[in-house]
Design goal:
The chain is of the alpha/beta class. It folds into two domains: 134 residues, Response regulator (Rossmann fold, 3-Layer(aba) Sandwich); 142 residues, 3-Layer(aba) Sandwich (Rossmann fold), CATH 3.40.50.2300. The strands form three sheets. Strands 2-1-3-4-5-11 form a six-stranded parallel β-sheet, sandwiched between helices. The protein has a four-stranded parallel β-sheet with strand order 7-6-8-9, sandwiched between helices. Strands 10-12-13 form a three-stranded mixed β-sheet. Strand 3, helix 4 and strand 4 form a beta-alpha-beta unit.
């Protein structure tokens, strides 16, 4: 009897120890899960875009996709300045007040506004042609530039399409530093090829129609840089150019989709994605913007708009047929 009582005591003791261990394990698991949840930081990124047009919109989506692929949990505050510098400054100051973890600025004017607003919050830009000339080389700034030295190739295509072309018209916003830089490059390369450049600067949408009519009366083709004011009004440019049976050379595929005849430019979605990869290195790996070099891309395929070809009566030369991608 005494042995039986002894055995029963031992069994109860083991049972209590076992239950205690299970409770400790459950508590440990709960603590681990809580720690993991608390450790997964949610980042806040302010996105400031100067205006909406296909190239800039694509770069924004590329940026967000890159951060998604990096596995980061991000809350975005997306703002559009509608082409207004005052609004761009207000947006930048708002992001500083809100203490965002990072600012993603799309295009030169919005990046300049962000740089003027903060020297401590990391700024990643995209769709900026000349960061140095725009005063954007700062310790808290890096990004992806849309500068592509492909003007010679673009003009070679023009000569294939129209061997008699001797003059190109360049329409741009003189208040955009990226456009001024591109126009100087276009003039330089065109002169080397014996092509005259007629330039027309505008500062507002209301000036576009008259400027276009002036250029189209003098030029054999229009060359449109990555100018936010002009590109965001590409349908207006195309309508006037098509009526005059003149070629429109673009610098981004989105403009070709909107009716420009062709481009041999860069993929702005990929440009934005490169910017997103830089942002991931800052947020995830703890790197400083000053440690990361500004990224550029090489030109992609030669892209033509089929409908525009038909509208202005352009035939594709045999020499170009194997390298062309068509959009409607």
């Amino acid at each position: 009897m005494r042995k039986l009582s002894y055995l029963l005591c031992i069994m109860v003791l083991f049972s209590l120890i076992s239950c205690g261990n299970k409770e400790e394990n459950k508590e440990a698991e709960t603590k681990t899960e809580t720690a993991q949840t608390e450790g997964a930081k949610k980042y806040k990124i302010g996105i400031t875009q100067i205006v909406s047009h296909p190239a800039l919109d694509q770069s924004r989506e590329g940026f967000k996709d890159a951060l998604k692929e990096a596995g980061l949990d991000v809350e975005y505050d997306e703002q559009n300045a509608q082409g207004d510098i005052t609004i761009a400054n207000t947006i930048a100051n708002k992001f500083v007040t809100d203490k965002v973890d990072l600012i993603f600025s799309i295009a030169t004017p919005t990046t300049q506004a962000a740089v003027n607003a903060t020297s401590s919050i990391p700024i990643i830009f995209t769709a900026v042609t000349d960061p140095e000339a725009a005063g954007l080389i700062k310790p808290n700034v890096t990004g992806s530039s849309d500068r592509v030295d492909n003007v010679a190739e673009q003009l070679d295509v023009l000569k294939e399409l129209n061997p008699n072309a001797t003059t190109i018209g360049v329409l741009y916003n003189s208040s955009e530093q990226n456009s001024v830089t591109q126009v100087e490059l276009i003039k330089k390369v065109a002169a080397e090829k014996g092509i005259k450049v007629e330039e027309q600067a505008v500062t507002a949408v209301s000036e576009l129609t008259q400027a276009l009519d002036n250029l189209l009366s003098k030029a054999d083709a229009l060359y449109i840089p990555t100018d936010n004011l002009v590109v965001s009004n590409m349908p207006v440019v195309v309508e006037r150019a098509n009526a005059a049976k003149k070629i429109v050379i673009a610098t981004d595929e989105g403009s070709v989709t909107n009716g420009a005849l062709y481009t041999k430019g860069i993929d702005f979605y990929e440009l934005g994605k490169e910017a997103g990869k830089l942002a991931a290195q800052i947020l995830k790996d703890g790197k400083s913007p000053s440690d990361l070099e500004i990224v550029t891309l090489k030109p992609t395929n030669l892209v033509f708009n089929k409908k525009t070809m038909e509208a202005i009566g352009v035939t594709l030369p045999e020499k170009l047929k194997n390298e062309v991608k068509f959009v409607d």
